[in-house]
């Protein structure tokens, strides 16, 4: 599921509850009100700033994480 993939790949920096540790690791709560699905997908895939890209994840897994973050 998107949540389990988030937990395995993202929660170590962005925390289980999506609150992050700003400014180093931004919070991801209410992400859909701040950006688009395409932008989130791109950042997961390619990375940005100190966040590494997760291009090794298959498309369906990235889509599941994106869907979890946007809902």
Note down, in words, how this protein is organized.
This protein is mainly alpha-helical. Helix content is 48%, strand content 0%. The chain is built from four helices and no strands. The model has no long low-confidence stretch (mean pLDDT 97).
Short description:
This protein is mostly helical. The protein is built from 4 helices and no strands.
Note poorly predicted spans: none
Question: What portion of residues is helical?
Answer: 40-55%
Number of helices: 4
Mean pLDDT: 97
Shape: globular
Element-level helix/strand string:
HHHH
* Strand portion: under 5%
Could you describe the largest sheet, including whether it forms a barrel?
A: none
Radius of gyration: 11 Å
> What structural category do the secondary elements indicate?
mainly alpha
Q: Tell how many strands the DSSP assignment holds.
A: 0
Give the distance, in angstroms, between the N- and C-terminal Cα atoms: 13 Å
Can you give keywords for this protein?
71 residues; mainly alpha; globular
How are the SSEs ordered, and which strands pair?
Layout: H1 2-9, H2 11-14, H3 37-46, H4 59-70
Helix pairs in contact: 1-4, 3-4
């Amino acid at each position: 599921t998107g949540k389990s993939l988030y937990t395995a790949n993202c929660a170590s920096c962005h925390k289980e509850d999506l609150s992050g540790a700003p400014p180093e690791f931004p919070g991801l709560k209410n992400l859909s009100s701040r950006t688009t699905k395409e932008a989130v997908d791109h950042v997961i895939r390619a990375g940005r700033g100190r966040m590494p890209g997760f291009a090794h994840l298959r498309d369906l897994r990235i889509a599941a994480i994106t869907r979890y973050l946007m809902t």
